[in-house]
Specification:
The structure is a homodimer of 209-residue chains. With 209 residues, chain A is α+β, with helices and mostly antiparallel strands. The first copy, chain A, folds into 2 domains: 58 residues, no CATH class; 124 residues, NADH Oxidase, CATH 3.40.109. Helix content of chain A is 44%, strand content 16%. Chain A has a 5-stranded antiparallel sheet, sandwiched between helices. In chain A, α3 runs antiparallel to α5. The longest helix of chain A has 22 residues. Chain A is globular and about 45 Å long. In chain A, 42% of the residues are buried.
Amino acid sequence: MDLGDVDGEVDVSLDYTGLQRSEQVMTESDTVRDRIAFLRGLRSVRDFRPDPVPREIVDDLLEVARWSGSANNSQPWELVVILDRETLRSLAAVEGYAKHLAGAPLGIVLVMAGEPERVGHETYDEGRLSERIMLAAAVHGVGSCIGWFAGDGRQAAKTLLGIPASRLVRTVLSLGYPDDEARRARPKREQPRKPLAEIVHQERYRDTE
Amino acid sequence: MDLGDVDGEVDVSLDYTGLQRSEQVMTESDTVRDRIAFLRGLRSVRDFRPDPVPREIVDDLLEVARWSGSANNSQPWELVVILDRETLRSLAAVEGYAKHLAGAPLGIVLVMAGEPERVGHETYDEGRLSERIMLAAAVHGVGSCIGWFAGDGRQAAKTLLGIPASRLVRTVLSLGYPDDEARRARPKREQPRKPLAEIVHQERYRDTE
């Protein structure tokens, strides 16, 4: 599981190619490492600077969102893009886990179709969509955090935004440029991950409990 | 929503910087465009060449998977990595939508914790995890497709792999190098997406029905 080995492997396989090709493939290999590090490196950001996220960047997020995959390509989603600080603060105050929205210059509420017999698919697709938007934001150096409306907060959010009651509204993404100073001032939240040995099984599940 | 505008914007803002810095930032801008195109471009692949996916690449996928975000950092997942063709064919045959697994050289079954009161969070996190793994695969030119066990297929998959009945098993990812020839031979499946105007609302939901 040593990632260093991957680079090693790629380098060795290039030893016999000419310089020009080698240089080009090295660049491809760099792109691969760079992208893997990018995917591996996404972390939640809860503290935002007040600077607005430029319209062109928002358009990029929406375009990536639009092309997200979904079960049977059903695209069971709509997005409400919110810049208004008052609306963001009101949404942050409803029941749930979206307080970070109060300090964000941008929020995106995911409005799922809400077909009762497809709730599993919609929830799964909602996770896929969220991940894409957060990754697209990170490309632009924009931080993000998932907020989650719970209990009465779901209907409250729908009422605030004029969303029909039939829709499923749970996720709101807070977005903005990271406020590194505020983050450093917070008590350190470690977000360690389980080692691969604890979560990966080869060919067959081995009970590790 | 014209993506071309983004590059234009970035270029203009660099007009006043020196050549060296400009060159460097141009490269950053290229990286941004490249990454956005990468995120936007992920598509399902159902036809695979028989070539195995190298171990180093599988390690990369698992490492990206391991660092996926989850609600409260609960990491409610384990992964079963399957190369055995017989097992893959057996899984492809259970009830559900995973027939493409029969032709894949690699399958990854997502085993979710299965806590009854957290099924919503687990399903959402399962979607996030799937998206990360598929993107990490795409970085390496490895195609992927989501398979979904349904009905009795879920227990059948658990029995085949020795997974405790308490776990939630729905998703299997088929992975492998794309067989472009087979894909061209298939009837063309268009996977268009709704226009942004249909799915995006500004500040407040406007009923477009």
